[in-house]
Design a protein that fits this description.
Layout (H helix, E strand, L loop, with lengths): L2 H4 L2 H10 L3 E6 L3 H19 L4 E5 L4 H14 L5 E4 L11 E7 L6 H7 L3 E11 L2 H4 L5 H4 L14 H12 L3 E5 L4 E4 L23 H5 L5 H11 L7 E8 L5 H20 L2 E6 L7 H13 L5 E5 L2 E7 L2 E6 L1 H4 L8 E5 L6 H10 L2 E7 L8 H13 L3 E8 L10 H9 L11 H8 L3 E4 L3 H6 L2 H13 L6 H9 L3 E8 L4 E11 L3 H8 L8 H8 L10 E10 L8 H15 L4 E7 L2 H9 L3 E5 L11 E7 L2 H21 L9 H7 L16 H12 L8 H14 L9 H12 L4 H8 L3 H20 L14 H6 L1
Parallel strand pairs: 1-5, 1-6, 2-3, 2-4, 4-5, 8-14, 8-15, 9-12, 9-13, 13-14, 19-20
Antiparallel strand pairs: 6-7, 10-11, 11-12, 16-17, 17-18, 18-19, 20-22, 21-22
Helix pairs in contact: 2-3, 3-4, 5-20, 10-11, 11-12, 24-26, 26-29, 27-31, 29-30, 30-31
């Protein structure tokens, strides 16, 4: 064993003693030497601990990565470990490893580091393999290659992520760095002040029978407490919701899964049958929960039938207990009675979906990650708990888990991981002085110096990114990597005069494409990173739009304590001025559409130009692209695209968009400025006569619907935020009845009125619009307007 490796003995022992992890970084240019050094470190670890469950992560498509793996395998001899491509790191979630060798020569993908960073147990080690830093900072990793979009070149890729990663390794506790080429430590192993951790005796509730065995599967007192609290839900009367929050690695999903088995068991004993639904973004997200529910049932003596899809558990059934996975949106229309709904990683779902689940079901468990890979911050629990507690006649249970299950508290590697990728970033604290500044309009629009922001001004960066973490966005470590290194991404912020960040904006530059790229787009090529130009060329056949330059707003979020104060709109107005000064042609945005969000963008003058043909299966939302033109050239193109969009949407409301909410459809058909103010109403003579007879006389709706469609199409093409409008309730009624072909009862229910009110209202509005389009220049023959028997009774 080399002398330098012996110098790691106390370093590794101290981690075992404290039940903490350690990182050893091996830096070198010779593949064989680096791999052989990794073998020495791992063999030392195995000799000291007898912990031998390890994995080797690498990028198999690179020849040098395969060479290093072969050299490592040769050095390990008969010692078993699992080689794994980085693309399979999702499979590690829920597992516990003793060590992980991570080859970073070819890639530094933050999501991969975030996943593997939580799966090694206390006392275990990570071994990072890296090239010399100067060489690394000149190379382009696989992650960075995917950030290059036309018209940008590889040399434009930034290197902030690698620099930040290296600096964090140099500063982090529990990390040692060895230079293989120079045979010396860059950062010698330093002692870490830790206390020896003994075995903790768990306090298990006094339960009967085999339930005790389920509790014994818990690793921490937090897990025991959560299981006990959730099991008690079945004794609560009326509506009861539970919210479980935790950082990643606290065993939250496992505890909820074990509780599900006990709840199912108790309900079956009482009623003979128990029906439980688990929902999450995908079956993969719920895999740990379902697996521990299965283990719980088996401890209770059940034979469990397991159904899988794509390797993930989607159903558990056993002697009258049924646990089924459903995607969130289909769950909303489930008709059969459900005893319990479990929402795993609830913060990943749009709030309207969570509100819908809450309203639809009596017993619901919401669990979510605060900090860590896929963390959503405390903003979710604060806002959602506030919403739950504001509802009448509901009992709310809550628990925050803090004990890690794989390692002891204050693990230095977890601290390093959270700090490096801003997994625990929080917005600035807001006080009364800050509110006064906002009320007085004392805010500043800034373009941060990205060298300063990403490398030096850690506090501002944490405030900036912390707003995203708290703003109900799905945040992944990759988001930070893209923001830092993508050559087409840039950031802006709205700050108070004291420097506190109150609005965060991430932008992607799009467009400015050359003729060859545009010609390929016409033929079907989809240039990466140019979402809005692609849709304008693909759907509306405006190839010259791809030459125009614009910003797509990737994410914009306001400090969670300062929402509904106009800060978002203020920031947008300043952003538009910025774009105008820079000679940009447009600003665009894409998002999952709901009424509240759409209202914000329509109010700020953005026009829809595309809507996805299907709902997102998780959120139940359609995706929408909207643009605000800046230059006159863009204005002409966007107005044309919006007119075509309206025509398409109006013609599709009875087809793919039959389920689109009428208030959302109405906002999609509205703009601040008129885009088709001279739209004409073109009716045949027969249509006109039938429409007159319907509006003033006995003609039925069914015999006039074709003419009504043309009448209302012309109206919706003309409307804007200014000028003539019929009452909003009737606009929604027209969408629901005429364009979505709903029954009178269903359409009226959407409006909250009786069907007869809608029937009479449509006739009245038809009269108004006929006069609007034709003036008083037409005569109405008497025979057309004789009232029918039903009309006489109605009036």
């Amino acid at each position: 064993m080399s002398e330098w490796v012996k110098g790691l003995e106390d370093f590794i022992r101290s981690g075992v003693k404290a039940n903490h992890r350690r990182i050893v970084v091996l830096v070198g240019s010779n593949d064989d030497a680096v791999a052989e050094s990794a073998v020495e470190v791992v063999k030392l670890f195995l000799n000291l601990t007898n912990m031998n469950n390890g994995v080797y992560l690498y990028q198999p498509e690179y020849g040098d990565a395969r060479r290093r793996l072969k050299a490592f395998m040769d050095g390990m001899g008969s010692i078993k470990f699992k080689p794994m491509p980085f693309k399979d790191t999702k499979l590690l979630l829920g597992q516990t490893l003793d060590y992980a060798v991570v080859d970073l020569f070819n890639d530094l993908k933050p999501n991969d580091i975030g996943r593997v960073g939580s799966v090694v147990r206390g006392g275990g080690i990570y071994v990072f393999l890296m090239p010399p830093v100067d060489k690394w900072l000149r190379s382009i990793t696989k992650f960075q290659l995917k950030l290059i979009t036309p018209p940008h070149k590889p040399e434009e890729v930034r290197q902030y992520l690698k620099f930040r990663f290296w600096e964090s390794l140099m500063k982090g506790e529990g990390i040692s760095i060895y230079d293989v080429d120079g045979s010396s430590f860059i950062k010698p192993p330093q002692p870490v002040n830790t206390l020896e951790v003994g075995q903790v005796q768990l306090s298990i509730p006094n339960v009967k029978g085999k339930a005790t065995e389920v509790y014994k599967l818990a690793k921490t007192q937090d897990q025991v407490n959560v299981i006990s609290m959730l099991e008690g839900m079945i004794n609560e009367k009326g509506k009861v919701n539970a919210v479980i929050i935790a950082d990643r690695g606290r065993g939250k999903s496992a505890a909820v899964g074990l509780a599900v088995s006990l709840i199912g068991h108790r309900l079956r004993r009482r009623r003979g049958v128990a029906r439980i639904v688990v929902t999450a973004e995908s079956p993969d997200n719920a895999e740990t929960l379902m697996e521990f529910a299965r283990r719980g049932f088996e401890e209770l003596g059940y034979d469990v039938e397991v159904s899988r899809t794509g390797g993930s558990i989607v159903s558990l059934s056993t002697r009258g207990v049924y646990v089924d996975y459903y995607k969130p949106y289909p769950l909303m229309s489930l008709q059969r009675p459900i005893d319990l709904v479990v929402v795993d990683e609830a913060a990943m779902m749009p709030l309207p979906v969570l509100y819908g689940i809450h309203n639809r079901f009596n017993r619901v468990i919401y669990s979510t990650t605060i900090h860590g890979y896929e963390g959503a911050g405390r903003g979710f629990s604060v806002r959602f708990l506030k919403y739950l507690k504001s509802r009448r006649s509901i009992r709310v249970l809550e628990y925050e888990m803090t004990e890690p299950i794989r390692y002891a508290k204050d693990d230095p590697i977890e601290k390093w991981l959270f700090k490096t990728f801003l997994l625990d970033a929080e917005p600035a604290h807001v006080n009364d002085d800050d509110l006064k500044l906002i009320n007085e309009g004392r805010v500043k629009y800034i373009e941060p110096n990205i060298d300063e922001l990403f490398l030096k001004d850690e506090e501002t960066l944490r405030q900036f990114f912390g707003i995203y973490v708290q703003a109900h966005y799905r945040n992944e470590p990759d988001d930070l990597g893209m923001m830092m290194d993508a050559p087409h991404h840039t950031v802006r912020a709205l700050t108070l005069e004291n420097g506190k960040v109150v609005v965060s904006i991430e932008l992607a530059e799009e467009g400015g494409l050359d003729d060859d790229t545009i010609n390929n787009m016409v033929l079907g090529f989809k240039p990466p990173g140019n979402i809005i130009p692609d849709r304008m060329v693909k759907y509306w056949k405006i190839p010259d739009f791809a030459k125009l330059r614009g910003w797509r707003i990737v994410r914009i979020a306001t400090h969670p304590e300062l929402q509904d104060k106009g800060l978002g709109s203020t920031a947008l107005g300043m952003l538009e001025n910025d774009a105008r000064v820079r000679g940009l042609d447009w600003i665009g945005v894409g998002f999952g559409v709901n009424a509240q969000l759409l209202k914000f963008w329509v109010k700020n003058g953005y026009l829809p130009i595309h809507i996805s043909p299907e709902r997102n299966p998780v959120s139940g939302e359609y995706s929408v692209l909207m643009i605000k033109p800046i230059s006159n050239t863009a204005k002409e193109a966007v107005y044309y695209a919006n007119r075509e969009f309206r025509i398409r949407l109006l013609s599709s409301l009875s087809g793919p968009y039959v389920g689109l909410e009428p208030d959302v459809a109405l906002m999609l058909l509205t703009s601040n400025e008129p885009v088709a103010p001279l739209q004409e109403l073109n009716l045949t003579k027969g249509q006109f006569n039938r429409l007159v007879a319907y509006a003033w006389g006995p003609m039925t709706y069914e015999n006039t619907v074709d003419a009504l469609i043309e009448l209302f199409k012309a109206y919706f093409m003309r409307i804007s935020g200014v000028g003539f409008r019929i009452p909003e309730i009737m606009e929604k009624g027209i969408i629901a009845k005429v364009f979505q072909s709903k029954t009178w009862s269903a359409a009226a229910r959407e409006l909250g009125v009786k069907p007869t009110v809608l029937m009479l209202g449509l006739r009245a509005i038809s009269r108004v619009l006929l006069v609007y389009f034709y003036g008083n220049s037409f005569n109405i023959p008497v025979f057309m307007i004789q009232p029918s028997k039903r009309q006489k009774q109605a009036y």
